[in-house]
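Bump. Still looking for Integrase DNA-binding domain-containing protein structure tokens.
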Amino acid sequence: MLAGRTREMGLGALSIVPLAQARAEAVKCRVLLKDKIDPIEARNAECKAVETAAARSFKIAAISYIDTQRPGWKNAKLPSNERTRWLLMAIR
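Sorry for the wait, here they are.
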């Protein structure tokens, strides 16, 4: 119970997560609760950090690809800097 509120957190399906691993994870969650940290919020923050890192990696790869391929692209409708700006806005 944290802030007068009881929450339940699943640790995984029994067929996938061994009982010993689930017990170890439960102990970690109890330690977080003892330190006044919501284990569900901690897990969500960790997932969000992983997603953000993956998005940054994609952005870096996309910018690198655009920079290397840009000289070969031809489009009479848009000047080069306008086209690049549009592409960079698309990957943000």
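Residues 19-90 form one domain.

Edit: fixed formatting.
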